[in-house]
Design a protein that fits this description.
By secondary structure, the chain is α+β, with helices and mostly antiparallel strands. It contains 14 helices and twelve strands. The strands form two sheets. Strands 1, 3, 4, 5, 6, 7, 8, 9, 11 and 12 form a ten-stranded mixed sheet that branches. Strands 2-10 form a two-stranded antiparallel ribbon.
Amino acid sequence: MNLSYFISQRLSAGKQSRFTGFIVRISVIATALSVATMIVSTCMVQGFRYEIANKLYGFWGHIQVRSVVASLGYDDDPINANQLAGLSAVPGIARVQRYAFKPAIIKTNDEIESVVLKGVGEDYDWKTVKEFIVDGKAFTAADTTSPYPVVLSSETANRLKLKVGDKIQLYFASSYSGSVQMNIRVSVVGGIYKTGLADFDKIYALCPLTMIQRLNHWQPMQVTGAEVFVDDVDDIERLGRSINEEHVDQTLSAKTIRDLYPNLFDWLDLQKTNETIILVLMTLVALVNLMTMLLILILERSNFIGIMKALGGSNGLVRRVFVYQSVYIIGRGLLFGNLFGLLICFLEYRFRFIRLPEDSYFVAYAPVHFDWVFIGLMNAAVFVVSVVVMIVPSWLVSRIAPVKVLRFS
C-alpha cells in the first residue's frame, strides 16, 4: 500500500477547517479559470489563423505558377497550359486550376468602378468558394456565350448598387496587332460573394475563362497562370521548391501564397505569438496560486506534520502526502477548467455570439478551431509542470521540527 497516498486521501475526504476549505476552493477555481482561458485563447487564435488562411487558399490556391517575367500588374503575357500538364501527377498535389486576369471598368447608369476579372474554367473547383457566395450562384463551364455571367464581391455590388440579374457594361483596354483597343462587353451579375478580406473583395470579380481568352485573342490553352492545391498545407514550402526545381521550365516560377501575401501571414503569425504569451502567463498564474495554496496547507497542518514525524515518518513521506493533495486539487482544476473552456468554445462555434468588426479582423465573428491533440498535450504539460513545481514548496516540511510544534500545540 502507498502510505502517503492513503493518508492524503483520508485528509482530503476528512473534515477540513473553514479556512482550509476556502483556500482549496480558491485554488481549484483559479486553476480552472487559468485552464479555461488557455483553452478559449488557443481555440479562438487557431480559429482565426485557420479561417483566414483557408479563405486565401480557397480563392488563390496554395501555390501560384506564372511566367517568370510576370509584371506587378494583371495584364501579363500568357503562358501555355501544356507547360503545367505534369503538375497534377506530382505526389502531394491535389489539383491544378488554370486562370487568367484582365483589368476592367464596370459602368452602370450612375456609377463607375475598376475591378480585376479573374477568369476560371471547367477545372475550377467551386466547393471552397460557394460558401462565400451570398446571393445568386456560381457559373458553369457551359456559360460561354454572351452576356457572360460575372460574380462580383458584395462590396463592389453595394458601391455600384447592383443585384443579381442586373446587366452591366465592362470596358477593357486590349493590345492587338501593335495597337491598343477599347472593348466593351455587356455582362450580367450572376452572383455576389463576400470573403471578409476587404483588400481582395474590393478588387476581384470572377468570370468565365473563355471571356478573357476571347478578349485577348488568346488560344484555348493560353492562360495567365495556374493555382496549385496541395494535400497537406505543411508541405507548401517544400512543394513550391520542388515545382521550381523539377517540374517547370525556366520560363515559369512557382510562388507560395505566403510569398505573395507576406504581410497577412505575418499578422497571423503574430496571433500565434499572442497565443504563446497567454499560455505562459496563465500557466504562471496557476503555478503561483498552487504554490501559495500548498504553503498555506503545510503551515496550517504543522501539528499533523509534527505528529507524523514523532511517529517515525520521514520528511519524504510527509512531503509526498502534500504533493498527492496538490495533484488532487490540480486534477479538479483541470477537469472544471476543460469543461468550462470547451463549453464556451462550443457555444461560440454553434451560435457565434461573439461579434467582431469584419473590416479589422477579416471575419464577422470569433472563429473556433478544435485541435484536440494540442489541447490534450497542453493539459498534460500543465499537469506535469504543476506537479513538478509543487515539489519545491513541499520542502518546507523538512523545516518543521516536531518538538517545537508539539510543545506549543
